[in-house]
Amino acid sequence: MATQTKPVLHGYFRSSCSWRVRIAFALKGIEYDQVPVNLIKDGGQQLTEQYKTLNPMQQVPAVEMDGITLSQSLAVIQYIDETRPGPRLLPADPKKRAQVRMISDLIASGIQPLQNLHVIQKIGADKVQWSQHFIDRGFQALEPILKQTAGKYCVGDEISMADICLVPQVYNAERFKVDVGQYPTIKRLNQTLLEIEAFKVSHPSCQPDTPADLRA
C-alpha cells in the first residue's frame, strides 16, 4: 500500500501498549514518527482535550496512519499486518492464528489493564501488591498455555502478535518485583525475544522520551 506520509505514534516510553506498536513497526521495517505523551507530567498529558480528539479513552497509544486514527494496540498491530509487507504477525494457519489471538487477549485484556496507570492510581499504597497479585494470576494461566503452544516463540517458531504482547508484560512484571523464575516458559521466551533487534530498538530504555536516569 502506497502511503503519503509516515505513521505517527502518540505514545509513552514505558507504556506496554505503545511498546507493542513500536515492536510491530520494527518487525515490519516501517519508519514512523513519535509524539511523546507524558502520562505523569502536568497531571497527565493524555487527559488534555487536544489528545482526547485522538483517543477518546485518553490512553496511549494513538496511531495516525493512512488517513485514519487507531487507538487500541491489537487493532493497530493487525492493521499493520494486513496492510504492510514483511514477516506475518499473525500465522496463516487458522489454529495457530487463534492461539496467537488467545494469548494476546489473555495479556492485553486479562493482565495488563489491571496495572494501567489510571487503575493503580486509584489503588494507592497497595499498588505493588495489587499488581503482583494480578500479574501472578495471569502468568499462572499463561505458563501452561505457552507450554502447549510454544516452539522457539510463543506459538511455534515464528514471531507473532503473542510475542509482541508477552515482552512488555514481562517488563511490567519485573517492575513490580514479580518472580518471573516461577514461570520457566515465559522466562525463556522473553529472554529469546529480547535478543531480537526489533525488541531492542523498541525497548523503553531507548525512546525519545525516556528519562536520562532510565536510559540504557
Measured between the Cα atoms of the first and last residue, the distance is 35 Å
| CATH domain fold name of the largest domain | Glutathione S-transferase Yfyf (Class Pi), Chain A, domain 2
Which stretches of 5+ consecutive residues score pLDDT under 50? none
Major β-sheet strand ordering: 2-1-3-4
Keywords: Cytoplasm, Isomerase, Phenylalanine catabolism, Transferase, Tyrosine catabolism
Main location: cytoplasm
Family: Belongs to the GST superfamily. Zeta family.
Subcellular location: Cytoplasm
List the helices and strands and how they pair.
Elements: E1 8-11, H1 16-28, E2 33-36, H2 49-54, E3 62-65, E4 68-70, H3 73-83, H4 94-110, H5 117-123, H6 127-149, H7 161-175, H8 184-193, H9 197-201
Parallel strand pairs: 1-2
Antiparallel strand pairs: 1-3, 3-4
Description of the structure:
- Belongs to the GST superfamily. Zeta family.
- Its main location: cytoplasm.
- GO terms for molecular function: glutathione transferase activity; maleylacetoacetate isomerase activity.
- This is Maleylacetoacetate isomerase.
- Residues 5-88 form the GST N-terminal domain.
- This protein has 216 residues and is α+β, with helices and mostly antiparallel strands.
- It folds into 2 domains: 8-87, Glutaredoxin, CATH 3.40.30; 94-196, Glutathione S-transferase Yfyf (Class Pi), Chain A, domain 2 (Up-down Bundle), CATH 1.20.1050.10.
- The chain contains 9 helices and 4 strands; from the N terminus they run βαβαββααααααα.
- It has helices at 16-28, 49-54, 73-83, 94-110, 117-123, 127-149, 161-175, 184-193, 197-201; strands at 8-11, 33-36, 62-65, 68-70.
- A 4-stranded mixed β-sheet has the order 2-1-3-4.
- A hairpin with a 2-residue loop joins strand 3 and strand 4 (68-70).
- The protein is globular and about 45 Å long.
- The chain starts with 7 loop residues before the first strand and ends in a 15-residue tail after the last helix.
- The mean pLDDT is 94.
